[in-house]
Amino acid sequence: MTFSAELWDSGAAKVYDKIVRHPFITGLTDGTLDHESFRYFIVQDSHYLRSYSRALALVSARATDEDAVSMFARHAADAIEVERELHTSLLGSLGLTSADVDATGSGPTTTAYMSYLTAVCATGTYAEAVATVLPCYWIYRDVGRELLKHSSPDPVYAEWIAAYGSEEFDAVVESVLAVTDRLGAEVGPGERERCHRHFAATSRYEWMFWDAAYHRLDWPV
Ligand SMILES: Cc1ncc(CN)c(N)n1
To answer: For a pocket test of ligand 1, which of 22, 49, 145 has the largest count of ligand atoms closer than 8 A to its C-beta?
Structure first.
């Protein structure tokens, strides 16, 4: 079994089933999701992407082969840029600006997820860092592909679905999966166990991120 399949089976398979049945996700395709929840999501995702970009730069710095160094560095810059452009367009369609993002600040789930990503990518091994960022790529690609089958009657949601269901995003994710699988041969038992834990944790954070948006979760105090 490949290292990526092993991570998915132990950490994401059950979570992924819950993600595709979550009302935030089903609401995108049937168009019933409240725009207020999607606004919350895009604002929080704008905060998230700033941290994610830094996390990918850390993964690049710790990569053990040159192709992976340049791939993660490219993703920290280009792939994030593509997502930022998407956000700018979606924020505009939703009547928001980047000033609104700054004024809102990051919510509890976003803050927890960003902190986890940053901590592991800064202090874990290279393999742990890859396992931690992998669900961010993989789950979005699979959700995008799944939702693209029906897209959405709402043009804002259809634009979001088209971006993550695109062939370009698929190619980005396939390149990260290939790096993960090559890395699998070098990872010993203790480190492997930590990779499993990180992959499961960030898969759960992906579900929590959508759930927080659906409920528009705020700091309790
Ligand atoms: C929370 C989250 N996770 C993943 C992705 C896809 N890079 C994203 N934009 N936001």
So the answer is: 49
